[in-house]
Amino acid sequence: MVLLVCVIIVLAGMLRRVPVFDEFVEGAKDGALLSLRLFPFILAMLMSVNVLSASGLLGSLVEHLGACVELFGVPREIVPLALLRPLTGSGSLALTGEILRVHGPDSFLGLLASTVQGSTDTTLYVVTVYFGAVRVRRIRHSLLTGLIADLAGLVAAILVSRHLFDAG
User: Fold this and answer.
1) What pLDDT tens digit does each residue of the chain (168 aa) get?
2) How far from 148 is each of 36, 122, 125, 152, CA to CA, in Å?
3) HEC letters along 35-92
4) Cα–Cα distances in angstroms (integers) from residue 48 to residues 79, 118, 164, in the given order
């Protein structure tokens, strides 16, 4: 299918007398320049996540918040995922994979982790990379709105998972 789509695009370009190869090269050049422009933002985001983990702050937050969420019947193991999901997609996906490996995909915790993964976004990453790409500097309101949406997605994921999947 991918090859068929590529052939259709090339044929459509040729029929419209568009220099397809030249346009492709120009697009590739623009993409490479965009990657170079975004690199500092991505590096800053990765450094922030690593500092958060290496400093022990993440562990401390998980420990303290874990006790709080258990009072509401939410498993403590979901806290690291809830904290990392707005920061990093790959890190939160790795945590979800570990939860699924340890507890099983059909366990309540596995279903909850999967629901959280699909109900929230990597807000800080999105704001950093995409706003950096278009050079938006005033991100306060967008960031706050994104984090509130993540919190709403997390709460909704917990409520829906408890309603649909919790047998206890």
Assistant:
1) 999 999 999 999 999 999 999 999 999 998 898 888 878 877 877 787 778 778 988 888 888 898 899 988 899 999 989 988 988 888 888 889 999 999 999 999 999 999 999 999 889 888 887 887 788 888 889 889 999 999 999 999 999 999 999 765
2) 31, 12, 15, 6
3) HHHHHHHHHHHHHHHHHHHHCCHHHHHHHHHHHHHHCCCCCHHHHHHHHHCCCCHHHH
4) 19, 23, 36
- The pTM assigned to this predicted structure is 0.70
3-state SS of 121-168 is: CCHHHHHHHHHHHCCCCCCHHHHHHHHHHHHHHHHHHHHHHHHHHCCC
Length of the chain as a residue count = 168
| CB-CB neighbours of 76 under 10 Å | 15
Token digits for 116? 């959280």
Domain extents for the chain? 35-165
**For residue 134, what are the contacts with CB-CB under 8 A and spacing of at least 6?**
none
Tokens of 112: 């909850």
